[in-house]
Amino acid sequence: MAHRILIVDDHEVVRLGLRALLAEQRDFDVIGEAASAQEAIEMTRVHRPDVVLMDIRMPGKNGIDACKEIKELWPEVHVIMLTSYAEDEMLFDAISAGAAGYVLKQVGSAELIRAIQCVGRGEALLDPAVTQRVLARVRMAARQEQAAAFSELTEQELRVLRLVSKGNTNKQIAKALYLGEGTVRNYVSSILAKLDLTNRAEAAAYAVRHELEKYLEEFD
């Protein structure tokens, strides 16, 4: 069954070029063209394409806004964002808006065809040129979340929590850190209060869930 495609770009030459390219594929059926975001939304309402090939930069409402509205109204429609720029903010805005693909206009025709086929099957796709950006942002977000999880704790409390997570008793922790058992109990109580936890088991689970070991490796 052919993928029904709507082409959206404010430049007529681009639309004509894309139509000519896609018309050569037997499994593609270009059901229309739109020159603006609003027109894209209206044509999606009328024709319900399988895939919308959407330019990001257009006068007035941009492609990301149109993508968000289309996905809210017709979740089954897949949107591929087309852009000449690998801009981080636009990339993540497009993903947040529900785009299934993000492809640079500089991509070769074979790659674009594969992207449409991939997205048409319900898969997600990113241009290789921007994949590393996504991975870097995801890793950065993970590190920030990790840091936030332990931001209230002092260095000594982090050391105590690490040993708690390994199942050490207060006596064992005291020996390992050269502290008195009463001091360790105070540290444990402080940790529980700061993390809004009720017992050592919860503290240990919290440390594992937020990857305390990996967090501390960066400072060792």
Question: What attributes does this structure have?
Answer:
220 residues, alpha/beta, Rossmann fold, Arc Repressor Mutant, subunit A, 2 domains, 6-stranded parallel sheet, 57% helix, rod-shaped
How would you explain this protein's 3D organization?
It is a single chain. This protein has 220 residues and is an alpha/beta fold. The chain has two domains: 3-139, 3-Layer(aba) Sandwich (Rossmann fold), CATH 3.40.50.2300; 150-217, Orthogonal Bundle (Arc Repressor Mutant, subunit A). Helices cover 57% and strands 14% of the residues. The protein is built from eleven helices and six strands. The protein has helices at residues 12-23, 37-47, 63-73, 88-96, 109-120, 128-149, 155-165, 170-177, 181-194, 200-209, 212-217, and strands at 3-8, 28-34, 51-55, 78-83, 101-104, 125-126. The protein has a six-stranded parallel sheet with strand order 2-1-3-4-5-6, sandwiched between helices. α3 (63-73) links the parallel β3 (51-55) and β4. It starts with a strand and ends with a helix.
